[in-house]
Design a protein that fits this description.
The protein has 164 residues and is mainly alpha-helical. It has two domains: 2-50, no CATH class; 55-137, Non-ribosomal Peptide Synthetase Peptidyl Carrier Protein, Chain A (Orthogonal Bundle). The protein has helices spanning 2-5, 10-19, 23-31, 39-50, 55-63, 73-87, 91-100, 104-110, 118-137; strands at 147-153, 159-163. The chain has a two-stranded antiparallel ribbon. The mean pLDDT is 82.
Length: 164
């Protein structure tokens, strides 16, 4: 569709596609034997290898992902990011989806400010996760002070010792 809008013929599209291959796709392309000779062959090989990207299907998969109770923020983001990249999901939508299914105790602390991009949001959530983990590990220390007999009531409403 975009090729028709830009008035690209199959030969130009084939050259552009080869030039834009990156990472694993570029390595995969270099190993192909015999090498594809035109756009139709290359397109068929790409669909065969990587599948046809259906953004609606990717969004449905994203809807099913949430951060598990013991899952680290970085691991949660990696699961989402694979689909974000495949579906070319815009940054604003990435931030919204990441926050929506983040563990509540972290999400509540993240929504108090605005993040300019997903990397900034993930960094802040990771730091909050670290701080919350340290707080959970800190042993409880009771209030220091003298115990005295008094007529005050304790939490259960019973008279007895109280701390000042």
């Amino acid at each position: 569709m975009a090729a028709k809008v830009r008035n690209l013929n199959a030969n130009k599209l084939f050259k552009i596609a080869k030039l834009n291959l990156r990472g694993r796709a570029k390595k995969w392309f270099k190993k192909l034997q015999p090498a594809p000779r035109d756009w139709t062959e290359l397109r068929n090989l790409i669909v065969q290898k990587y599948g046809n990207v259906d953004v609606d299907d990717i969004r449905m998969k994203l809807d099913a992902i949430k951060q598990e109770p013991k899952e680290r923020v970085q691991r949660y983001f990696k699961r989402l990011d694979k689909l974000f990249q495949r579906g070319r999901i815009p940054d604003a939508e990435q931030r919204r989806r990441f926050l929506a299914r983040l563990r509540p105790e972290i999400r509540k602390l993240c929504i108090v400010r605005t993040f300019t991009n997903i990397e900034e949001l993930v960094g802040a959530a990771t730091e909050l996760e670290r701080v919350l983990g340290e707080i959970e590990k800190t042993p409880f220390e009771p209030l220091k002070g003298r115990a005295r007999r008094g007529s005050r009531r304790n939490i259960d409403g019973e008279a007895g010792d109280c701390f000042e």
